[in-house]
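yo, Neuralized-like protein 4 is done. seq:
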Amino acid sequence: MASKEKVDTSFSAVASKVQGTQAKWYHGMMSREDAEVKLKQAGVGSFLIRQSQRPGKGFILSANLKRGFVHFSEISISSDGLWTSEQQTQVLDYLSRVEVVKGNPLIANEKASGASFKTTCPYWKLCKEYKDSLKLYDEYFEPSYDMCYCTKCHNKRGEKDVYTRGDPPMKYVLPIGWCRFSLKVPPKAKAQNVFKKWHVCFHGTDSTAVDSILGCGDLLMPGDYAVGGRKLSEKEGHFTDERKPEGFDTKQIFLSPSIKYSGCDVYAKPKTFATSAGKVYDARVAFQVCVRPESYKIGPETIGATRKNIKIDPHVDNDKIECFTKERGSTILYGLLVNMEETNT
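structure:
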């Protein structure tokens, strides 16, 4: 039988509130990588509770101790406010240490604590105003995983610019300068453990296509029929069957590990938007996507940047910046991205 130890009452909660907004120390489903970013920012002695991304693994205590980061799985909370660990009772020893329990508070979830970018960041509010103007169904979204990647919020979190994801690992660049409105994902995302095993890419699109894409639930390729029966064709400025390099197939889904590429004017056509404050912006949209490894190929940019001696993204080679696939069902949308750039008008 696992041992039990009473924890400071300010850090305990009944099990029924583990996933409630009242449990301000609970951060929902979070990767080890993201947890360590928060712990590093909070300093030695801080810790949080998160849900594992692996099916059936339950809750995890992640802590920043003097000897480094530790992650204890199989954590549960009993109705009398006791922390228990059926498999790793050593976690109780760490919880009782002054450096963890008494020295520092748990890291509060921004959503629960009220100190959220949603209430304090003007860029987030600006992007949300544009997103709301698209009049998309609320049922498409999962707001608890929203994120502001403006430079200020990004630096405040102490994040890196580049991360890796998937099996085998592949790097992707955080969408700095964009805001993510998280989407609900289909059951297969959990069944196939896509947030751990699949890669992360971006797909730029026209804001007029967002509702249709969300209605379909997947990315389509030229030649497919969208909701309502409209046949999709190559966009203006893209290669077509009549104008393309020899052997190039235009009937594919195009992605990139760089938002600087997927979010350029060719893929994410800017739309003029006048805010409620009377300012005018160029608004762009894109999707953050999980893509199945081995379902796609990698190739060079096709927007003419190399010919003009332009380096698109300092973190990704121009020769390896475009991903393309003909495999349907190999992508899962999990975020709508919005970027706003003030015009000179």
